[in-house]
Amino acid sequence: MKTITLLGIAFVAISLGLPVNATPMCPELLQTDNLENKYRRLAPIHTDIENGWIFTSDQLSESYTLKSEAVHLMSGIAEEFESRGIKLAIMIAPPRPLVAGDGVVKSTLGSNSVFDTVAASDSFNQMIEQLRQTGAIVPNLLPVAQEMNQFRQYYFRRDTHWTPAGAAASALELAAEFGFSDAAFSVSDVVSSDIYEEGGSLSNIVNAICGLENDVEQVAKMNYSRIMASQGLGLFGSASEDKIALVGTSFSDRYKRDQYQVADALAAASGADVSNYSISGGGMIGPMEAFILSGDVDDYSNVIWEFPYTQSPNSTSHLRQLLGALRFESSNLSPPQSLELSSSNEAAITFFDRPLKADLIQFETETANLLRVDVVISFESGKTRTIKLRRKDRVPLDRRTTNWFADLSGWDNDSIIEIIAKFDQGVALQQVSFRYQSSVEDS
């Protein structure tokens, strides 16, 4: 492993004209073209050896405001939960740079950085307000995190996730958003003497690129045992009557064991039983789609959908996939139509003779191993739209399904003349069927 010294890093940084006031952990982190492909999408990677913070480029977005299509689809998702008698809450971990603070951002990115913390903050706050307008319960965790960060770490400096204390503060804010203002505890009440050591996913990247090993970060674990033992009625009522499903990402399933105690924090804040359906690496919709299509969703009166700020609801293909899964149960689909696949795993369904108005489509295959379906829809008007249906292989096979759904609502009232489905060429398919739900009454 190569040896790196602070003096050497500083000299190279100055000679390369790197950001003023920042001392990167190594200059290669800022040289996108020289990085391996798996790191290139995260570059430039900004670091400061003095303050210890690491920010990847995907964490430095200034734009979170939702497009109109995303607002329409998120509203549809909230409405589907409401129609089932389920309260939907959306818990979004806020942007790390904004929580770290302007001083840390400037010292890490350099004083000539173009990242606008004010613009990013305004845009994130606007997204939260847009999501609240959908009817979902959506706490704004940014001011909570910024306030907490003044005396206790909300985020790790060299990992993308919140700390156990950050998770606790987030759970309490969610409780307050539900209207349970008389919380049973504060974060300081549950701080344990036990220490958790986080090596850090961002530290691993720096180690791989720079050959530099950072120290592990030590933070306190939380101890909810006293709080939970004394719980009576809470936010959602008795644990025996109301149940909460937590459906989220690695923030709620770190190392596949909820390392940051998110479910316990929510149980302590609510006084209710919390079942954790989160899947590390499952993406924004993977765990939720699996949860919905399993049928378990109907066992709960409250669902918390957790995903971080880096997972954008503006990925409308994902939202159409999830809304389609939600709408399936109450749908009136056509009889299944067997599709003939080409050598490239493509199938065409034509409606030239009788153009179709549909608001939901379904594909069913014989295997749950499929991870990609591109759906290209051509309309009478000449417009073409593509929906990219995706699943993650990190979602366990027994939690996947052979069915794929896509919601088609919210587009212009245009008739479909052709649908081309492009299935993952890496999966051998023998049987594929297609169904649709008409958006107009048959004459």
Walk me through the structure.
One of its GO terms (biological process) is alginic acid biosynthetic process. It holds the Pfam family ALGX. The chain has 443 residues and is α+β, with helices and mostly antiparallel strands. The chain folds into three domains: 6-59, no CATH class; 68-200 and 211-316, no CATH class; 337-438, Sandwich (Jelly Rolls), CATH 2.60.120.1380. The chain is 29% helix and 21% strand. The strands form five sheets. The protein has a four-stranded parallel sheet, with helices on both faces. Strands 9-16-11-14 form a four-stranded antiparallel sheet. A four-stranded antiparallel sheet has the order 10-15-12-13. A hairpin with a 4-residue loop joins strand 12 and strand 13. The chain is globular and about 70 Å long. Residues 1-18 have low confidence and may be disordered.
Kindly list the characteristics that best describe this protein:
disordered N terminus, 443 residues, 3 domains, alpha+beta, Jelly Rolls, 21% strand
Helix content: 25-40%
The largest beta-sheet arranges its strands as 3-8-6-7
Coarse morphology: globular
Largest sheet: 4 strands, parallel
Structural Rg = 24 Å
Supply the helix-strand structural class. alpha+beta
Number of helices: 13
Mean pLDDT: 91
Q: Approximately how much beta-strand content do the residues carry?
A: 15-25%
Low-confidence stretches: 1-18
Q: Work out the count of structural domains.
A: 3
| N-to-C order of helices and strands | HHEEHEHHHHHEHEHEHEHEHEEEEEEEE
Based on the structure, what is the oligomeric state of the protein chains?
Answer: single chain
Distance between the termini: 74 Å
Overall number of strands = 16
